[in-house]
Amino acid sequence: MATPALEKKRESNPYVVSFGRIPNQFISRSLIIDNIVETLNSDIVEEQAFKLTGIRGTGKTVTLSAIVREMNQHPQWVVVNLKSGGDITGDLVANLYSEVSFLTKYVDANLNLSAFGIGLNLSKKSPVASLDVALKKILQEIQRKKKRLLVTIDEVHKTDAIVDFIQEFQILIREDLPVYLIAAGLYEDVESVENTDGLTFFLRAATYEMTPLNLNMIREDYRKTLRLDTGTAGKLAEMTKGYAFAYQVFGKYMWESGGKSITNEVLDQADEALARMVYDKIWSELAPRDRWFLNYLVQKDTMSVEELLTITKKKHNEWSEPRKRLAAKGIIDVSVRGRIALKLPRLREFVKNRAEE
Questions:
Q1: Is the pLDDT score of 123 beyond 60?
Q2: How many Cα neighbours within 13 Å face the side chain of 47?
Q3: 1: pLDDT confidence band, cut at 50, 70 and 90?
Q4: Integer Cα distance of 115 and 220 in angstroms
Q5: Where are the domains positioned within the chain?
Q6: What is the 3-state secondary structure (H, E, C) of the chain?
Q7: Three-state helix/strand/coil letters over 239-298
């Protein structure tokens, strides 16, 4: 007769460490999802743009995918997912033409978009001057059909195409057209778009930060899914610090181990995944002074500012800018006055390994 561990190994691992898709086992950010979905489905929508922001691995893409899946259940919505790096307006018009049947018919009958490689070449119709004009006409048709358009852009970052699209978006909503936007991106990337001249609307759009997952929910998930005792499940949950990617990482390697205790092998595998898929990239983007301070900060999970300045022999003004940058990147928590806390799990082990290298 097979043991429980062998039976579990025969099942598909419910945890994944690849970005971009909804895992079989995940903790939904239901408050964010429900709030945005309910707002969008209101008779009078008071918000027309939303931002999901956080560091790598906090679940932005998974949350965005869950919202899209929910909105696709409502027939009054046309949902288009776009890449940040492309020609946003052009990709949007092309997508609407190719994927939405009533818009395909409308464009073929009314708009000559052949200059942009879209639709039929209507010799009797003058070519549309620009894609902005085409998008406006398409939105008027969507409005006439009593539908709404939701545009989602993942991994948003500042490009000329993004800036142009958001500027055009502002004009479209001023004309009361039914277009809505959800953009997801890293703190610094979203901020770079917000701070662009002429994009006040985007700056004021509703922002949802991917805060840490609830540790009690992670513990209960580990207890049931991994069949761990409450103490071990709780210890494993605490090690994640609520970081969504770490929750998947620890779950995956505990599942694969088939054991009931947290072994060094599991920790080594988790450290490797965190480093390779998240921390190496974060580290490479840090300023040399930020890395220097971080070598001292990782000595403890939390420390006072005074303690940091004592051991580094630095002054407050020398710590000020690194503090802002490390906090903006989601590496440290400085919400409690005079205290510094590490937000990322197993970061001490990562920094120590980098120092040894």
A1: no
A2: 19
A3: very low
A4: 57
A5: 30-209, 213-282, 287-356
A6: CCCHHHHHHHCCCCCCCCCCCCCCCCCCCHHHHHHHHHHHCCCCCCCCEEEEEECCCCCHHHHHHHHHHHHCCCCCEEEEEEECCCCHHHHHHHHHHHHCHHHHHHHHHHCECHHHCCCCCCCCCCECCCHHHHHHHHHHHHHHCCCEEEEEEECCCCCHHHHHHHHHHHHHHHCCCCEEEEEEEEHHHHHHHHCCCCCHHHHHCEEEECCCCCHHHHHHHHHHHCCCCHHHHHHHHHHHCCCHHHHHHHHHHHHHHCCCCCCHHHHHHHHHHHHHHHHHHHHHCCCHHHHHHHHHHCCCCEEEHHHHHHHHCCCHHHHHHHHHHHHHCCCEECCCCCEEEECCCCHHHHHHHHHHC
A7: HHCCCHHHHHHHHHHHHHHCCCCCCHHHHHHHHHHHHHHHHHHHHHCCCHHHHHHHHHHC
The domain 30-209 belongs to what CATH superfamily? P-loop containing nucleotide triphosphate hydrolases (3.40.50.300)
What is the token pair recorded at 181? 């936007």
CATH of domain 287-356: 1.10.10.10
- Tokens 């500042």 correspond to 158
What would the pLDDT profile of 82-118 be if each residue is shown by its tens digit?
A: 988 888 999 999 999 889 999 989 888 888 777 676 7
Task: State pTM to two decimals.
Answer: 0.85
